[in-house]
DNA sequence: CAGTGGTCTAGACCACGAT
DNA sequence: TCGTGGTCTAGACCACTGG
């Protein structure tokens, strides 16, 4: 199986392609095809397996790259994203893609115990680690509860805005985590390809009165993250 | 993209192929190729994407099947596997593949603060949900601490054996969780194909003295499991 | 033994990126 | 504009499953 051959050669490959000390880009698929005396379909199958393994990733229409180390995350701790990254020597950044008032699907309405006509803020954001896009998220919160939210600095910490501007404090949260494939529209935002493995996290955050504060849907590039949990 | 077409047709497909009330098996790749006027490579790409999504899975050289619902698991709770499954209407079973005394790799020795010459029990097991293989695990524990372990009923709860037969009580644990591809040897045991997405969980369990009791490496078929965690 | 999935070959066309 | 990745066609051989 070609996959093993390529895997063993990976370190060399990334080096040789490195014009200067560049980003760990692999040679083009056609170059690999020649080098390994194979065909493009086969080369791609091998690359996709390495992608599944979390060893390489690809950027849409750009090429294949070696994966940097994963961000270590504890789903129990309510830690600030920037702080978490910094502690691990990574630079975090958040980009705001959109913020609009809209209605939400039935799952979300039900979670808030609101009916289907209710208005929500939908905040669409993207997160980078060392300028590599690794996650997109949509945050839903009831519009009535956060007047003027669209004018806040939404490319920072939402938790801080809730707390400082609206006196709403998140006390605990629940995360649902599954492995799935990146939907095409999310992939596009991340400059990745639809179908890549990802972690889908649905996070519900509550205040001390057990009321839902916001509903968050995240898609993480699977090779960018590692989870560590501690039972008591 | 063919993938969407097939996805939409999935319910119909699983039905039509069902000889009797069978397991949700899809038609053969060649049948699909004809039905959708395409080629096998393309059909397979579409199927593999659906597999990545967690909608279908394949058994090695048998075919493609619709996925049953996922087992919901809380990595914080130290719940018995059988009980967990039962609560969710699933039937759990464990098979013992092997149990031997052996040396362990450096990661594991270091975790136990033992040197590379130390002997360990290595217990290799497989777990089924409704008779579908969904996980393989290797459990390592220091041989000296558990004399005669190989003669116990290792297809049941290890925790119970530790507690009842050796007076060793697990008090807390730490789990490391990443998404990766199923290695070929693990895939073989599961009757699956190497390269399928999986959850790899490394779990360390400690006694009340903060001493490591066992070291567990699990590979879960990704579409068989969903995680739910609650922060305090 | 017939049919299946696993793996591979040898091309093709298009849209987009880098230049 | 040229090369790249994204998608697809049309075959092939083999090992294994299931009847």
Automatic annotation (TrEMBL), chains A, B:
SMART domains referenced in this protein's UniProt entry, alphabetically: HTH_GNTR (SM00345), UTRA (SM00866)
Domain HTH gntR-type: 1-69
Family annotation (PROSITE patterns): HTH_GNTR
Example of a GO biological process term: negative regulation of DNA-templated transcription
Entry keywords, A to Z: DNA-binding, Transcription, Transcription regulation
Gene3D superfamilies tied to this protein: Chorismate lyase-like, Winged helix-like DNA-binding domain superfamily/Winged helix DNA-binding domain
GO MF, one example: DNA binding
InterPro entries: Bact_HTH_transcr_reg, Chorismate_lyase_/UTRA_dom_sf, Tscrpt_reg_HTH_GntR, UTRA, WH-like_DNA-bd_sf, WH_DNA-bd_sf
Protein name: UTRA domain-containing protein
Species in which this protein is naturally found: Thalassomonas viridans
